[in-house]
Amino acid sequence: MKLSNATLANLPAGIVTPTYDRSALSAGIVHIGLGNFHRAHQAWYLHRLMQQGKALDWAIIGAGVRAGDAAMRDRLLAQDCLTTLIELDPAGRSAEVTGAMIDFLPVEEGNAALIRAMSDPAIRIVALTVTEGGYYVDATGALDLSHPDIRHDAANPDTPRTAFGAMVAALKIRRDAGHGPFTGQCCDNLQHNGVILRQTVVGLARLSDADLADWIDANATFPNAMVDCIVPATGESELALARDLGVDDAAPVTHENYRQWVIEDAFCAGRPPWEDAGATLTDDVHAYETMKIRTLNAGHQVLANAGELLGVPTIAACMSEPQIAAFFRKVQTTEIIPYIDAVPEVTPAEYLALIERRFANPEIHDTTRRVAFDGSSRHPGFVLPILRDALAAGGPIEGLALTEALWCRMCAGTREDGSDIAPNDPHWADLTAAAQTAKDRPAAWLEQAQFYGDLGENTALAQAFAKWLNLIWADGSWHALQHYAETVG
Length: 489
Prior knowledge:
The chain is an alpha/beta fold and 489 residues long. The chain folds into 2 domains: 5-282, Rossmann fold; 286-487, Orthogonal Bundle (N-(1-d-carboxylethyl)-l-norvaline Dehydrogenase, domain 2), CATH 1.10.1040.10. It has helices at 36-40, 42-51, 69-78, 112-119, 148-155, 163-176, 193-206, 210-219, 236-244, 286-310, 315-320, 322-336, 348-359, 368-372, 375-393, 398-411, 428-438, 443-446, 449-452, 459-475, 477-487; strands at residues 27-32, 59-63, 83-89, 92-98, 101-104, 125-128, 183-186, 225-228, 253-255, 260-264, 280-282. The protein has a 5-stranded parallel β-sheet, with helices on both faces. A 3-stranded mixed β-sheet has the order 4-3-9. α6 crosses α7 (193-206), α10 packs across α16 (398-411) and α20 (459-475) packs across α21. It starts with 26 loop residues before the first strand and ends with a helix. Keywords: Oxidoreductase.
């Protein structure tokens, strides 16, 4: 059955569908970046509220700023912006069609339609999932003023290239019209993600209009949040799975049977009652996001680079390989958990056990390639802050150094069976050149200051990294993992 408003009533009986009148919804949110994660997470929470008869004036208008977003727009508009969510629980699969999204803006140069939509005072939240590396942060954590996109938007504030430039342009229109600002809501996996979004928006505004920047900084809010749900990419097998369930969906989403959303309650123009759909509202997101980003997101990098090098196709398959799983657990318990505080009702050790169960879910075909993508953002964002804490505390770093050596070896572009690793990072060419140089001179990898900052100057890290990288090149990754398990600590 082709998915659309007209066919919802004819879908198989086991598929949950919207009980609310979608024609009566009105928009309150513009969401930029309509990938799988957003549709399985924020959009799902809103859909659940609507199923309760709540938040009917908070529907989502989708948007994108990259040329590739146009293809997703076409797919979703053709099915009335509906999405089939398929939960992959080892105990049994289930499906639900969500309908919180009601439109998708044209994807166009200059972003006029996006600016116009965000200028409407009915839009009270502008949310984003644009990937961890999409916020123009340099190696020091500041806004990268040298980036061509930032320079373009500073010089052309009325026809911006970036989502943030479009937000600035819309906020200017709202201010000039006497309207209040919207809340900027980051839904990406970044520590202090609201702070980073504020830095990018306000910093970009300051390059062209200092008074506007001051107004945004004083009046707009950018709540920090922790988001969590494992959502694999959609390919032919996911499309076929939806068809097997009786739905012809051009963009279905599979996901695990777990979600978490912890949100700072700081919304300048109001918000849906997210807590009624299971979100946690708190004034202290930091402890939650630290636990999640360090255990899950950094843990993903511990697994994925080893898995990609060794031809292990998925995260679940990595967890079923004893040597890789042992490496993961040892790094977590000795080098990551010591720098994580407990949160209400869960200790770091209990959370690690939860992550291990989730990663091992055989129904989730989350590829090592997807998880290893954009390591140039994910290692600086997830792994290197732990390394800094460990070095400052004088704690062990061998497993984290091995993690970095595995990333370096992966970026050389070949697996250990000789097969090629296709480019998998926005900076792939530079990473490959550095990795190949590091084969003979390991320090060349850590000298990439745009990723490592001053960490490359740390003698303890340099020595540990060189030891592991040399061992990987000489005897292979399996041997390095075994050597770490048997000799370290």
